[in-house]
Structures are given as C-alpha cells and as structure tokens.
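Record type: monomer structure entry
Structure origin: computed from sequence
Chain ID: A
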Amino acid sequence: MATCPLCLFSNSPEAAVCARCGKFRFPAGPTESEFIGEGHTRLLASVHCEQDTDDESGRRTIRGPLTVTKSAVQSSMATVAATAVAGDSDAYSVVTIDTTPAPLAPAPPRLIVIRGEKVNAEYLILNGKNFMGRSADKPVDIDLTGQESSEQVWSSRQHAVIIFDRGMLLIEDLSSLNGTFVNRSRLHPGQQRMLQSNDVIQVGTVQFKVTM
C-alpha cells in the first residue's frame, strides 16, 4: 500500500502518481518492505514532489524513509548527501542508521576450581594484580579459605599472584612454602609464567582451570 503524504489517499503499491490528487509522484526504486532484514541500513533522505503550478510554492520536500543495502550506502553515500542538500534548500541531510549489533565485550578470564572443597567455584581475574592465598592476615583477591580441608591446609596466606595486563595473563609464585604449579610444573619463587586457556594451576591442594 502506497499512501500519498499530501492527501493521505491509499494507492496501490504499483502507483506512480497519487490517483486522488495527482500531485505526488511516488519515487521509483526499492521500497522499505523489499529490503528490511539482516545486514541492511536505513537512510533518511528527501523525496521531492511537484504540484501543477509554476511557482516555487508548488515544490515541497518530504522526509521519508528509504532502505538500501550497506554496500550501496558505502559506494554512493557522498553523492546522495551532496544532492540532497544542494538540490533544495529545504532538503534534509542523509542520516545513516547502522542496524548491525555492537560487538560484545570479551568476558574477563576466570579460574574454575576442578579440585577442592567447592568444585566449579569461579574466580574472576581483574586487570592488574590478583593475589591468591588465605585472607587470615592480609586481604587477597582469590581467597582459598574454605577450599582446603581444615586438616590439610597447604596454601600460604600470600601464595601467588596472577597479573592481567593488556590481554595477557602471568602467574608468579610469592615464595610460598609448598610451591605453585602450572600443568604440574613447579614455578621458582619470583618466576613469572604466561598462562593460556585450559592451563591447570595448583595452589596448595586446590587446582584451577584457566578459562579465557
């Protein structure tokens, strides 16, 4: 259905000129219903119509939605915008609305407990230093309190630290009594090692899987 914006008469979709007033000429080319879908862009452009008069008052600019593909917009946007503004002082500038969903922010890395008192517990790794240990004397970011049996506590209060910087994960042992292990390999105190997804970290008796 093609509605005339002057007299609001409902014309057939194939109509080139309004059947009632005869003053509005429907634009040739794609319509909104033909192109709405994934990967398309909507433009707000000017549509000109002429009345059967010789004076300038018979010329109008009507703002209406047109829908075109992204490739057409990228190849012809400069030409369309210049014509819309320079052809008529009342014309509207072309406005592009990109319907592509914004990319989701990447999820922060996590440690998932695979051996401990609370299996499947997750710890988020934040930017900067993330201290691992038991919050008995000093606060820690990854608190192992309750993850080890009270009869077998092997983690130190300040056991290790994980550094998250510019998308990279590093782990360092802080001279712990029982050591820090990555994929069963023990780290020397002060030694830093890069972590990757699915690496297994052992701190005390607790084991974590790295998820990135």
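Annotation 1: The mean pLDDT is 75.
Annotation 2: Residues 2-98 form one domain.
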